[in-house]
Each structure stands twice: as C-alpha cells, then as structure tokens.
Amino acid sequence: MAKLIMSLEGSMIKEIPLDKERITIGRKAHNDVQIENLAVSGEHACIVTILNDSFLEDLGSTNGTLVNGTPIKKHILQNNDVIEIGKYKMKYVTEAAAGQATVAEFEKTMVLRAPGGAKAGAPGAKFGDTAAFQAGPGAVAAPAVPAAAPAAQPARPAAEAHPLAAIQILSGPGAGKELELTKNLTTLGKPGVQVAVITRRPQGYFITHVEGAKFPVINGKMMDAQPHQLHDHDVIELAGVKMEFFLKTS
C-alpha cells in the first residue's frame, strides 16, 4: 500500500496510508488530511489511488501544489515524489507489485484528436490528457497500442480470465467507434471538464470519477465518489458523450 510521509521543516509529523480510492487534503475539517494553515486552501488537493497507481490533482487552490518543486494541476505520482502544500512536505512512498501497469505504459498511450487539435503524442502529457481523444463536444479514451509482451508475465491471470469488454460511442462525431478495454486502467473523458477511469479487476470492470464538478451518469442515474461496477450494456454519460459498455464474446 502506498503512503505519504508528512514533514514540516525537516521534522516528520506522521505517515498517511493511502487506503481509500480518494483522499482529500485541505484546511477544512472534513478533509481526510487536514492541514490547519492559512497558506492551505479549504479543499486544496486530492489523491486518487487505483490499483497500484496514485494520481494527484490540485483542486484550484490559491497557492498551488508542487511536486518536486514544480507546480502541477494533475500528476501521476511516482515513488519518492515530494508533494509541497504550503510549508508542508509529503513524500509519496509505494511498493508496487510486480506485473502491474507502470507510469511508462501511460506515457506510451496513443492520443487521437479531432482535425485541428493538438498533435498526437504531444510531449509533457499528464494524467488528465493521457489516453483521451477529443470528439466534438466531448472526449473518450483510446487504448494504448499494445507493446511487445515481456518474456514472463507473472501476475495478472485473474483479471485476464474475466471476459474482455469494450466501449462503443453512441453520440457525437465519434458515434459508432468501438474501444476495447484491454489495459488494467483506461482513462475516459475530457480534461478540465470531466474525467473518469475504468479499471479491470478480477471481479470485473469498475468506473471511478476522477475530475469534474459533476459525476458520470450510469443508466440515467448519477454515480457517487465510490467505484461503480459496470455490467453488460450499461450506458455511460461522460463529458457530453454517451457510450455503451459491453462484454465481448469470442
């Protein structure tokens, strides 16, 4: 399990286990990590942890959030990254299991955009725009081009045993497109508007809200902050795009 080691002026204060899918950091009491300091906004930042990956997002704070001295809006955390909020520092420490997806896999994800948009694979892409293509009013993820498989792939038989699923776009210029959910984690949405991730687990496929004031809608009902298990032919509404989740048959 990943954790944060919080310190102030070089003195360690406490360790914070990232034992929830979404942990908020801020000055107000309802935050999971409360920092009572005027330099910290009421709701300053949040960390979303899915499988062995954690994503840091600044929630529009007044004084900003730094990682390794650099201001960020969204950032895929890597082992030993140092988060700075006000005068407080939080070192991110993880022991990722072998065989899980790495940050490098996200970097290799193909980025497709409508004509006139940014070039595919633009350097410096971070979590919010990884695996997404813009299609008119909304956007949806494009799975990565599969890399050559390593000689040994130990630990993913349970997830791979689950039926392969896909997303079909139902509205907008991309209507009719089909995207197979072949990776352990696929990002969907439009950065700055609404972003969610679909994770492939041994129990099935789950969608989790990551960014945006409004939560995705599943079969006409708005989901909450908790992961929602997807079922065959569920209809997802995300960032102005309707799409259908379905299990593929051999």
Task: Describe what this molecule looks like in 3D.
There is one protein chain. This protein is mainly beta. It contains two helices and 23 strands. The strands form five sheets. It has a six-stranded antiparallel sheet, with no helix packed on it. A six-stranded antiparallel sheet has the order 15-14-23-22-19-20, with no helix packed on it. Strands 4-3-5-6-9 form a five-stranded mixed sheet, with no helix packed on it. It is elongated, with a radius of gyration of 18 Å. The two termini are about 35 Å apart.
Task: Indicate the topology.
Blueprint: E1 3-8, E2 11-17, E3 22-26, E4 33-34, E5 45-50, E6 53-58, E7 65-67, E8 70-72, E9 74-76, E10 82-85, E11 88-93, H1 103-107, E12 132-135, E13 138-141, H2 157-161, E14 165-169, E15 178-180, E16 185-190, E17 194-201, E18 204-211, E19 217-218, E20 221-222, E21 228-229, E22 234-238, E23 241-247
Parallel strand pairs: 3-4
Antiparallel strand pairs: 1-2, 1-11, 3-5, 5-6, 6-9, 7-8, 7-10, 10-11, 12-13, 14-15, 14-23, 16-17, 17-18, 18-21, 19-20, 19-22, 22-23
Features:
single chain; 250 residues; mainly beta; six-stranded antiparallel β-sheet; elongated
Task: Report the biggest beta sheet as strand number plus sense, adding barrel if it closes.
Answer: 6 strands, antiparallel
CA radius of gyration: 18 Å
Number of helices: 2
Spatial sequence of strands, sheet with the most strands = 2-1-11-10-7-8
Give the overall silhouette: elongated
Helicity, as a percent range: under 10%
What is the string of helix and strand elements?
A: EEEEEEEEEEEHEEHEEEEEEEEEE
The total of beta strands comes to 23
- Which strand-content bin applies to the residues? 35-45%
Query: What is the mean predicted local confidence, pLDDT?
Result: 76
Structural class: mainly beta
Uncertain residue ranges: 97-147, 153-159
Cα distance, first to last residue? Answer: 36 Å
